[in-house]
Write a structure and sequence with these properties.
single chain, 272 residues, Triple-stranded beta-helix, 2 domains, four-stranded antiparallel sheet, 21 strands, 4% helix
């Protein structure tokens, strides 16, 4: 037969089938879980010690049960990653189905990458996926590291880059942040002066990781509030997203009634 069902009576679910299912259930996302020390990093010379933790990589649950060490290359910079490498073979001992059966997993390991990370689609014929957990810079005898936040389905709050010419209004609250949680991006902001940005309307530059998950970016519209000089009148505006930036579009004939030195609001949209 050309059709099968893996979760059927007497059938066998292979690791490949299992990983494909879990990956699909989490929208093919990857990242670390809030388990153990969340892969805490310490450095001694060129030796890095990575603490306990768990990560979901292409639908596979990878865990550091006890701290692991890794030697970094000297005079280099790059990324510390957890690799899932299907070209490797695992070692087995004992008899399957008995307490003596054991598997030594060689398909998951730590690696220092000095070039571009390899991130194949393991569920569609790929063989290697490297999940970054820290960056590093080394000299001949020592190294420094910086943790890369890749919490599964949650980036945490990050600073949102303003568009060229856009600045914060010094007389008001000043913040612009974004967060991606479960495939949805939320941008919150207040006190942005648009008068010197392109068209007096550009709000933000769009980081690659939060490009909207649509084909017609101009159709992605969300309500924000824009205040005039005195912060007394509220004029409704729409936030429009394209592949590079976010800008405002006035919803009524109010342009010119104020210099719009104070933009604030919330934008929510799907990414990925």
């Amino acid at each position: 037969m050309a059709i099968t069902m893996y979760q059927s009576d007497r059938n066998v679910v292979s690791p490949t089938n299992d990983a494909s299912l879990y990956s699909g259930l989490v929208s093919d996302t990857n990242g670390t879980l809030r388990r153990g020390s969340q892969f805490s990093i310490s450095v001694n010379g060129l030796t890095v010690t990575v603490g306990t933790g768990q990560a979901v990589i292409q639908g596979r649950l990878v865990e550091i049960i006890q701290s692991e060490t890794l030697t970094l290359p000297a005079n280099s910079s790059g990324t510390i990653a957890i690799a899932v490498d299907l070209t490797k073979e695992n070692d087995v001992s004992g008899t399957a189905g008995t307490p003596t059966y054991q598997v030594e997993v060689n398909q998951a390991y730590l690696v220092a990458v000095t070039g571009k990370l390899t991130q194949d689609d393991l569920n569609n014929g790929g063989f290697l996926y490297e999940l970054p957990i820290a960056s590093f810079t080394s000299t001949t005898t020592s190294a420094t590291t910086a943790v890369i936040k890749s919490v599964f389905n949650d980036t945490g709050w990050k600073d949102m880059p303003l568009a060229d010419g856009a600045v914060f209004n010094q007389k008001s609250n000043k913040y612009a942040r974004y967060r991606v949680l479960n495939g949805m991006c939320t941008i919150v902001f207040d006190g942005i002066d648009l008068t010197r940005s392109t068209g007096q309307s550009d709000l933000f530059k769009l980081p690659k990781e939060i490009i909207p998950n649509i084909t017609d970016f101009q159709a992605m519209l969300f309500q924000i509030n824009n205040f005039d000089d005195n912060n007394t009148n509220v004029y409704p505006a729409t936030a429009v997203l394209d592949t590079k930036h976010i800008y405002t579009r006035w919803n009524s004939n109010v342009f010119g009634k104020g210099s719009f030195t104070h933009a604030s609001g919330t934008i929510i949209y799907p990414v990925g």
